[in-house]
Amino acid sequence: RMSELMSQPTVGFQGVPGAYSESASIEAFAAAGVDEIQARGFHTFEDVFVALSKGAIDYAVLPVENTLGGSIHVNYDLLLRFHGAVHILGEYTLRVRHTLLALPGVQLNDIKKAMSHPQALAQTESYLRTAGIAPLVGYDTAGSAELVVQQGLRDTAAIASIHAAKVHGLEVLDYGIEDDPNNFTRFLILSRAAPPPGALLGFAAKTSVVFTPHRDEAGVLFKAMSVFAVRDINLSKIESRPHKPGVLGAGAGPAAGASGGAEARRASAANGTAVVPAASFEYTFYVDLLVGVEEERTQNALRHLREMCSSVSVLGCYPQNGLVLRPANGSPQTDASPPASSGARVSHGPATRLRVGIVGFGTFGQFLARRWVGRGHAVFAHSRGDYAKTAAGMGVAWVPDAAALSELSVDVLFVATSILSFEKVLRALPAPLLEKALVVDVLSVKAHAKQTMLAVLPPTADVLCTHPMFGPDSGRHGWQGLPCVYDQVRVADYHRAARALALFEDEGCQMVKLSCERHDALAAASQFVTHLTGRLLSKLQLQPSPIATQGFKALLQLVDNTCRDSFDLFYALYSHNANSNDMMDQFGAAFSELRREILDFGAAPPAPAGEIAISRTVAAMPASATVAISDLAIELKRQGKPVISLSVGEPDFSPPPEVMEAAHEALREGKVKYTALAGAHELRSA
After folding, report:
1. Is the pLDDT of residue 259 over 70?
2. How far apart are CA 138 and CA 126, in angstroms?
3. Cβ distance 398 to 391 under 8 Å?
4. CA-CA distance, 352 to 95, in Å (whole number)?
5. Which of these, 455, 579, 488, 449, lies nearest to 526 by C-alpha position?
6. Rounded to whole angstroms, how far apart are CA atoms 4 and 11?
7. Strand 323-325, strand 235-242: pairing
8. How far apart are CA 338 and CA 333, in angstroms?
9. pTM assigned to the model
10. Residue 651: its pLDDT value, please?
11. Collapsing DSSP states into helix, strand and coil, what is residue 203?
């Protein structure tokens, strides 16, 4: 391992201990096999560059862009200023997970304020508003955690990283409180020495270039970009910054050079010879090319670019989402399978490779293992059946004896058995395996899993309940956007739990934080109802039809999907979720009500004695507003109130006999016509 070949390197970052930059430093070097580093914090980004250029530290880890906040411009400017003195060795992407931290013994309902960097407060605004916690601006995230400890603030929490909780001795009140889960920061790893020639041959490389086009030339940026396009060189980033003449490499020289220039400017100002500069709107462009600098097409593109620019500089060539290191003793050491002449170690793969144990290696256990092995994690499987050949075929270490799992020091233990056998399997696991372990279930019912693990597992074990709401069929093309429900039931080591959840997060799952009880209530009204409907329709033995509608085809597909699962699963969804029985009763009541409605539709309900039966259709007709006004006018008149009514009234007395006789005669002789309406004659003639 690299840690055996080099002493602990000193890595500089901006911030205080516990900062996200320190977390990125630790994780980036761990991915490269350097298990221990000496992380050293500095007050400003410039301080880090100065320390690196002077040899006070071996490496620097600095943020350059965030998916929510955009680019960190000061570091791009410093890269240009210290060009030649520092070189880019690699890049690392850190997912930013904000955590609510407080002093030991403080409860969530004790918190009135939350202190953090303004950007962190903005990224947790919705959470704080819902919790009724007032934001309080601090210097930075880890600095806020440090201040809570120093001042003993029991009504104030800090929003920082899990790493900050460990560093400053704080307790985690809540984890993953950011409003937008798409919160990632890209860091660059810098060194005084550039990677040796050929170090990246055979690996996907990235080259960072900075250039300043000639002024007053039409289409100069288009022309600059075309030198890459015509050679099929893809760009992952382009950034413009105001051009500052004389900045390139200024930080690489002696400090006296910079101060001398300043003294000259002060002297010219004193003797009146200073010239006021004119406005100069020139820009320098930073681009990241997804190609190695040593490739012929890259060299040709850079040569072409120099013809149209006043300056072109390569800031570094390094692995895409990786890191290239040379051991401190200078002897070359390779990782993976780069050419023997590379003389460096190149790291790729997950930021932190986990040792994952899986108990229950059936269809779903294999589905999980196959994905995680593909991501570079070490997976160890155990099951009652013999799956040794299956495990070997997918790169999983088969462990026939559960007791042997205890000796493998797994980071997380997944129990992927059926719902019905979950408790039996859990009780059969050896005690040494469970002591201080992180145990995770993947059952479709959560309250049962929670209660069982709390009852069976030792109190030193962390309990994490998850429900990946997908399987081999729905997840065969990837897990991107698929929901994964989780509940951190009992967690002491939040950092370990976060790494376990990252197994799903890194696949792009939609992480849904729900209590186990809330999950079961929602699942009964969705998952169980789906299975119940499919099973019920299967009893009808529905068959495809040449006149089937899309809706009918969807019902057939539902029957096929639900009946493909075992009846054991359907029974377990019913028997191990208390809400499912209520949903079954509601389902039956709804069917009876609908049956009664359709049979009674249109028929007149029985009328009370002495009243006329009116059909449901007539009863559902709205009352006439005119009649209502007339009734009101009559009632007011009966009360002796003067009323002037312009509505058509309904006489409440019989007409005289003469009128009745004339009306009858008119009906007998056909002397009755409808009042003419507009358009009636035209309609008849048409």
Report:
1. no
2. 18
3. yes
4. 12
5. 579
6. 18
7. unpaired
8. 10
9. 0.64
10. 59
11. coil
Note the pLDDT tens digit of each residue in 157-184.
999 998 899 899 999 898 889 888 788 8
Residue 374's contacts (CB-CB under 8 Å, 6 or more residues apart) are none
User: Catalytic: which of 187, 285, 367, 504?
Assistant: 187
The catalytic position among 185, 284, 298, 452 is 185
CA–CA separation, 83 and 60 (whole Å): 14
- pLDDT at residue 644 above 90? no
pLDDT band at 560 (very low <50, low <70, confident <90, very high): very high
Dihedral angle over CA of 161, 162, 163, 165, nearest 10:
100
Quote the CA–CA distance of 380 and 391 in Å, as a whole number: 9
* DSSP character string of 463-505: EEEEEE---TTTTTT--TT-EEEEEEEE-S-HHHHHHHHHHHH
Q: How far is CA 647 from the centre of its chain?
A: 65
Q: Residue 591 catalytic?
A: no
Measure Cα distances from 579 to 455, 464, 571 in Å: 21, 22, 13
CA–CA gap between residue 460 and residue 75 (Å, rounded): 44
Using one digit for the tens of pLDDT, what is the confidence trace for 72-92?
Answer: 989 999 998 999 899 999 999
CA distance 65 to 75: 9
Active site residue 361: no
Alpha helices in 493-549 (DSSP H): 494-505, 516-523, 529-538
Q: Is the CB of residue 224 less than 8 Å from the CB of residue 309?
A: yes
Residues 6+ apart with CB under 8 A from 319: 90, 91, 200, 203, 204, 205, 206, 346, 347, 348
